[in-house]
Structure formats: C-alpha cells, structure tokens
Amino acid sequence: MPEPSPGVAAAIEGELSLLDPLVRASTELLAQVLHPEYREIDAIGRCWNRDTITALLIADDAPRPGPLTASRIHGVELADGLVHLTFETESKGLRSHRSSLWRLTGRSWLLYFHQATPFVAGPSDGE
User: Fold this and answer.
1) How confident is the model at residue 48 (pLDDT cuts 50, 70, 90)?
2) Is the pLDDT of residue 8 over 80?
3) DSSP strand pairing (34-41 vs 108-119)
4) Sign of dihedral through CA atoms 79, 23, 97, 69?
5) What is the DSSP letter of 77?
6) What is the pTM assigned to this prediction?
7) 112: which strand partners?
8) Which pLDDT tens digit goes with each residue over 81-125?
9) DSSP state letter for 119
10) Burial code of 74-101, b = ≥16 C-beta within 10 A, e = fewer?
11) What average pLDDT does range 24-46 have in this prediction?
12) How many helices and strands (H and E) does the chain possess?
C-alpha cells in the first residue's frame, strides 16, 4: 500500500489526536485542531460549531465515551488543501462510521467538518 500524501497523513494524525481524552478536554488543544468555521453533525442529527462543541467537550459533566478506537481509516486529497477522511470508531461496543474534511489553513491542517453515523456490523461490512 503506498504511503499517504502529506495532507492525508496530517489529517489522519489530527483525527487520531481527537480521540485522546486530554485533547478532547482542553480548549487550547481543540483550538489547535478545529478550524474557526468548524461544523459537525452528530450521531442524532444535531449541528455544532467550534464554540458549541468545545463547550460540550470541556464541560465538567461532559459525556466521556471511554477509550475510542479507530479503524479502516481511508483518506483522499480532493484538491490542494482539502482532505476527506472516512473511518470507523468503537467505544464501549458502540460503533460509528465517520467522515471528516480537513483544510490546510496557513501551515496547519484543521478539521473543517465532521459527521458520525452509528451502525451495527452486517454483511456489507465484510464481517
């Protein structure tokens, strides 16, 4: 399998950093990864922006999903400075298909858009 492009590698690194509970609980660290125009559609259809998702994640009573693992990460550079990632996550037996767009902003790759959809493994998942 060929090495990913530098943009895809940076997006994967950024995405994996967001699975770290320390990053998810830090305003400063989230600001280093989330684009100022960040948008998210969560697993139940709610829409979030950078400020609202940061406030949710750092709140003392924030939901803590437990360890998140990522698998089947695939990335493609759609255009200069734009990477699309798809992958799966699992936490406490709950699985989600995920899709994200990463934009090169200045010299940093930042998460611009994210969506998660829960799923139950079936024949189409190769299992």
Assistant:
1) very high
2) yes
3) parallel
4) positive
5) E
6) 0.87
7) none
8) 999 999 999 888 889 999 999 999 999 999 999 999 988 876 665
9) E
10) ebebeeeebbbbebbbbeeeebbbbebb
11) 94
12) 4, 6
Query: Tokens representing 60?
Result: 């003392």
Looking up tokens 């684009």 gives 35
In which residue are the tokens 């699985």 written? 95
- Read out DSSP for 81-115? TEEEEEEEEEETTEEEEEEEEEEEETTEEEEEEEE
In this structure, the number of other CB atoms found within 10 A of the CB of residue 71 comes to 9
**6 in helix, strand or coil?**
helix
Cα separation, 28 vs 125, in Å, equals: 37
Task: Report helix, strand or coil for 22.
Answer: helix
Cβ contact 58:79 at 8 Å: no
Find the radius of gyration of the CA atoms of the chain.
14
Q: Which amino acid is at 23?
A: V
Cα of first residue to Cα of last residue in the chain, in angstroms, is: 22
Which pLDDT band, with edges at 50, 70 and 90, does 68 fall under?
confident
In order of 46, 68, 107, the CA distances from 20 in angstroms are: 23, 8, 23
